[in-house]
Amino acid sequence: MAVAPFFMFATGIENSQPTIHGGATRVDEMEKCGHYEHWREDFALVSEIGVKMLRYGPPYYRVNPAADRYDWSFTDEAFEEIRRLGIVPIVDLCHFGVPDWIGNFQNPDFPGAFAKYARAFAERYPWVQLYTPVNEMFICATFSAAYGWWNEQLTGDGPFVTALKTIVKANVLAMHAILDVRPDAIFVQSESSEYFHAEGPSAIAHAETMNSRRFLSLDLNYGIRVNSDMYEFLLDNGMTRAEYAFFMNNTLKHHCIMGNDYYVTNEHRVMADGSTRAAMEVFGYNEITRQYYDRYRLPVMHTETNISQGKLGDEAVNWLWKQWANVLRVRNSGVPIVGFTWYSLTDQVDWDTALREPNGRVNPLGLYDLDRKIRPVGRAYRKLIEDWNTVLPAQSVCLGVPLVMPESTDDQWAVERREQFREQREARRRANEGAVSTNP
After folding, report:
1. Structural domain total, the chain
2. N or C, which end of the chain is more exposed by having fewer CB within 10 Å?
């Protein structure tokens, strides 16, 4: 039996797809960044830079244009090329947007529809093992239904809780659907890691509330009981006791890696009136990651970071060095960290306004520019991978499931392993059903 013998160096193809202007405008980053025209070249660049893992997802709104209808034409070609090149995809199925027929994250039918989509994808590509069903659940709910920037463009605690419970339930149901097809699937929950610093004594209460709220998406996803203040907040804003019980009783934590994202914008200063502004980097990735690890006790992967190249052309290179130093510090402190990601492969467009305005401004955040020319940070990342790839042990990872490389999917040991996990899953399901029947 073979377990992947490498630290999971990764990059990603930016595939955000929210809507703005009351749902009238779709912001498709894969289109804006030229991926639909250059996808073969993009995948070749992934191999050129030396990474084995690619955060990548099909355009959800295009693949699933109507209920129970799928168009796999582009996805079939793209994933065949990924497999041919020996790239291991971490498949991102929902990245900030849903198909028009679903509407937005206030729709209670979204979780069921998304689970169908996840199952259909897993059945079509049975060699895929790694998934991020819904990307950055907390950020998606916040930007869509608390800040009013995307999709439903609502503000307030009620819409936020509705979006949050809908998004996390979709993620949980999708994990169950994928496991029914691929029982040894591993889920990398890419989530923003946040911290809120009180500006002064009068802001402490606000900061404490925000520092509890930042955990809500992962608490619900992993079946971790929230504190009393957060429980009241959820119930006061539309979550029922039965909905909360669903999350507590449907944890799939044992199939998960906690992916956490860190940018210079992830730390915030909280004012006395509860407003916030950017704090820039105060604690840094190491400290905040250890806070999340202490709460969830799961293997960790740094799933997103970047910064603009800057006027002197060295800011991104310096940020890469700093993030990598933090990754090593996390690892040396005993936290099982299994991977690192510079996101994304190419520059992005309009993230300087968080995709709220279709200005067409290129953000120099990628390993390559949009002409597919390597940036200094791309050369630095390639060198970092060359230097460290054989040094870091694969102790990947105290996972209970092995990472099966795509080319080994049909090997006898891999088939037998999946069957073993399928039997264990069925046994666990029967035990849970028995527990419910004896405890009405």
Report:
1. 1
2. C
Ranges of residues in the chain whose predicted pLDDT is under 70:
1-6, 393-402, 434-440
The rounded Cα 114 to chain-centroid distance in angstroms is: 16
Residue 1 lies in a domain: no
pTM check: above 0.85 = yes
56 burial level (CB within 10 Å; 0-12, 13-18, 19+): buried
d(CA 366, CA 364): 6
Contact 307, 319 (CB under 8 A): yes
Which two structure tokens, joined as six digits, stand for 196? 């809120």
Asked if the structure places residue 3 within a domain, the reply is no
Size of the chain, expressed as the number of residues it contains: 440
For residue range 157-167, what is the model confidence (pLDDT) as tens digits? 999 999 999 99
Q: Is the dihedral of CA 308, 311, 316, 319 positive or negative?
A: negative
Six token digits for residue 382: 């390639």
Q: What is the CATH number of the domain that holds 181?
A: 3.20.20.80
> Rounded to an integer, what distance in angstroms lies between the CA atom of residue 170 and that of residue 112?
7
- Structural domain harbouring 415: 8-434
Q: What's the token pair of residue 355? A: 């995709």
